Amino acid sequence: MVYSTFKHCLGTSTLVVLAGLACIIILSSLFVQSFKTDVHVRMFYGIMQTIMNHYALAVDLGATNVRVGLVSPAGKIVAKIKDKTPKNGKNGAVVSHRIIGMIREIMTGYPDTRIMGIGISSIGPLDYKAGGPLHSPNIPFQFVPLEEPLRKKFSLPVFLLNDANAAVLAEQRFGAGKNKKNLVYITISTGIGGGAIVDGKLLLGKSGNAAEVGHMIADTAYSIRCSCKKGLGHWEGYASGRNIPKFFKVWAKAHGKKIAVMLPAAKDVFDSARSSNAVAREFLDVLHRVNARAISNIIVAYDPEIITIGGSVMLMNGPVLLAGIKKYVDRYLKLPEIRVTRLGDDIALLGAAAAVFAQRE
Ligand SMILES: [Zn+2]
């Protein structure tokens, strides 16, 4: 009776479709309940995302460039465009307008692609409540609205993270941290930043700065002021791309070293050491000790299974810097696996996508 009433209202073919959907839902839930670990659940959802072909839009807002990509659940960047970060305009909205234009440009090539959400990796510091970078020293706007304009324009969920936090998510989902619950990613670039996942959870802290390792104290001998202007002896003030030449000058002066040629950029310091310049080599040994001190602090603070390091300074000088770190890390610490990231320059973009996939599971 009930069946014939439904049949009368809906028709036979509709009933077959509904019955099929019900079977899929029941079987899926039984399948999920039978899983014993998070890994299995994640694998299941990963497979479902791949089958359903749901992609993520990823935005990487840097001081110099802004990049937008379309990323598959397997971490393949199927489309990517790059532009200079806007520096002129009445206010920070000029940046979000440009990003909206870039997203539209990407999507014209993929009009039928289903998008799960938009992930944004941004330079910091971020104001998570306001949804964008606030008082960032590298952008000439007091505030750049990111989250709200993108959510309104595209009616999609938007996830905002600072670049190093995004990068550690990328490492865990697509890189050397796969299936690991404790990992740290460090970027040694113009500045130094970090992201940490501990017991499977991304550490954020009250304002998203729980792993701002660039501002750990790594030296007490030379008293160099950090580029954050907030303290002396911070790791970033010595070992970032911007500050290596400054540290070299301070060190050379303190030890009365005669420098035949000026070394105005980090690249010049590394090149001189490679060409067997004795002063540059001696300095690199001091730099290695500073790096190793900071990495020792990181090992103590986060107890990671693996540390991966990226950023332009590391990507260009990986073997020499890694060897120096391993040589001087505190001997009493059990050294975790330390390596240069395989995800290269795309790590923050992939991290923005990873934030979308992670939040929708
Ligand atoms: Zn600092």
Explain how this protein is built:
With 361 residues, this protein is an alpha/beta fold. It folds into 2 domains: 135 residues, Nucleotidyltransferase, domain 5 (2-Layer Sandwich), CATH 3.30.420.40; 167 residues, Nucleotidyltransferase, domain 5 (2-Layer Sandwich), CATH 3.30.420.40. Helices cover 45% and strands 18% of the residues. It has 12 helices and 12 strands. Helix 8 packs across helix 10 and helix 10 crosses helix 11. It binds zinc ion. The site of zinc ion (ZN) has 7 residues, from loops.
Could you give the count of β-strands? Answer: 12
Order of helices and strands: HHHEEEHEEEHEHEEEHHHHEHEH
How much helix is in the residues?
A: 40-55%
Q: Count the DSSP helices.
A: 12
Query: Could you give the order of strands across the largest sheet?
Result: 3-2-1-4-7
Uncertain ranges: 1-36
Query: Which strand-content bin applies to the residues?
Result: 15-25%
Q: Any idea how many domains? A: 2
CATH superfamily of the largest domain: ATPase, nucleotide binding domain
Classification by helices and strands: alpha/beta
Largest sheet geometry: 5 strands, mixed
- Rounded average pLDDT: 87
Task: Name the hetero compounds present.
Answer: zinc ion
Classify the fold: give the CATH topology of the largest domain: Nucleotidyltransferase, domain 5
Q: What CATH first level of the largest domain would be assigned?
A: Alpha Beta
The geometry reads as globular
CA radius of gyration is: 24 Å
CATH architectural name of the largest domain? 2-Layer Sandwich
Distance between the termini: 41 Å
